[in-house]
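Support request, please re-run this one:
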Amino acid sequence: MRTDERSAPARKGSSSRRVFLRHVVACVLGIVLLYPLLWMLSSSVKPDRLIFSDTGLWPSEFDFSHYVDGWVALDFPFGLYMMNSLIIVVLSIIGNVLSCGMAAFAFSRLRFPGRRALFAVMLGTLMLPAHVLLVPQYVIFSNLGWLNTYLPLVVPAFLASNAFFIFLMVQFMRALPKELDDAARIDGCGSYRTFLYVVSPLCVPAFATTAIFTFIWTWNEFFSPLLYLTDPELYTVPLALRQFMNAEGLSSWGQIFAMSTLSLAPVVGFFIAGQKYLVDGIATTGIK
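Re-run finished. Output below.
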């Protein structure tokens, strides 16, 4: 008995040291991972001659002209490119939430012939390399006359083309009690009203997770806008940042870092605003 009483404080002290060590390791890894971002933020307010010669995070000299000059350095103000990206992002979020939500509701709550086979095919598309579809998609959009418009970037989102989001929502909806559907059916609700008034309000974490991932992936998308957009007035933020680098490899690094910093602000703000729902959505769906 006395031995246990003596060993209890020792075990408690050992556990505290392990927790402290884990926190130290996590902090060190966090600093290592954040260093490139912090260096970019620091370089955006350094004079050009100090960007690569001074690797410290705290600038010895401050120069905020990169933000002013970079905003108007291209053919159009940088705000136009941010607005173009925002239009595509908002439409993509609406399309993914609506179409993927309805597809997930059908797979998880309805019974129809071939449901299991269709769901297996849908999951199989997750393993299909995206580059395999580039040529057929480009030919289709070209025949439809959609090139140099936002339609190739937005319309697929309204057709439940993202299997990852469908699977995410299916896992969430399967956890909801089936009695809710029965009660709604007794009250006279059809499938659409059950989805709209009963299931959708309970799927806010899954919808928020879909919206956040759609925002981040679409905002940072470079290849698809490069493939389908040719008019500089329609360019998105990633394409605008590419314009700071000329054919000779000479770049306005200070302006690039300044505009890159500004382009991060919407993503960080949206992530912080929806962080609670993102954690809830992943915890209740993705881990299953």
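The mean pLDDT is 86. The longest helix spans residues 2-43.
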